[in-house]
Amino acid sequence: MEDCLFCKIAEGKIPSTKVYEDELCYAFLDINPLAPTHILVIPRRHIDSCAVLTQADEALIGHIFTVIAEIARQQHLDNGFRVVSNAGEEAGQTVKHLHFHILAGRPMTAKMNDRMA
Ligand code: 5GP
Ligand code: ZN
Predict the structure, then answer these.
(1) What is the pTM of this model?
(2) pLDDT in tens, 51-107
(3) d(Cα 98, Cα 102) in Å, to the nearest integer?
(4) Which atom of ligand 1 is nearest to 16's Cα?
(5) Is the CB of 92 under 6 A from ligand 1?
(6) HSE of 27, CA atoms in CB hemisphere, 13 A
(7) Residue 99 appears among annotated catalytic residues
(8) How far apart are CA 44 and CA 95, in angstroms?
(9) Counting ligands in written order, which one lies closest to the CA of residue 87?
């Protein structure tokens, strides 16, 4: 999608620190980390958010979660990690291309009253 930041990152048109890639998805370090480990996993194909997913996306989303587990093993996130996907304004979504945050390396609050606590 034209003028989409994460489409451009997935295409390599905007630089990022790659963590993982394959034909379906791309993972990179968040530019403003909220935890010692803060990785974003995105589909290469533009999807606005998890709010617009359909049955046609099930294989892709399943694949992304398998990739998340693989990244967690590679990065030795043995003490646990949190996966967050913000959809829409009230949730605090700032980039309108589906992404999954992987957060780890510090205790996470159980409260869900922050952007991603
Ligand atoms: P959201 O707020 O939409 O859930 O998450 C968007 C995330 O993208 C934020 O955590 C923000 O720090 C990250 N981000 C925004 N622009 C860039 C960028 O140009 N490069 C990287 N690596 N991350 C970005
Ligand atoms: Zn996009």
Answers:
(1) 0.95
(2) 999 999 999 999 999 999 999 999 999 999 999 999 999 999 999 999 999 999 999
(3) 13
(4) 22
(5) yes
(6) 24
(7) yes
(8) 14
(9) 1
Q: Please, what is the average pLDDT of the chain?
A: 94
- Evaluate: CB of 113 within 6 angstroms of ligand 1: no
Quick one: pLDDT at residue 88? 97
Which H/E stretch holds residue 65? helix 58-74
Q: Tell me how crowded residue 3 is: count the other CB atoms within 10 A of its CB.
A: 6
H or E element that contains 104:
strand 100-104
Residue 91 alpha carbon, nearest atom of ligand 1: 4
Question: Which residue of 32, 38, 39, 49 sits with most ligand 1 atoms within 8 Å of its CB, as the best mutation to test the pocket?
Answer: 32
For residue 91, which amino acid is it? A
Domains in the chain, please, with CATH?
5-80+88-104 (3.30.428.10)
Is the CB of residue 54 less than 8 Å from the CB of residue 113? no
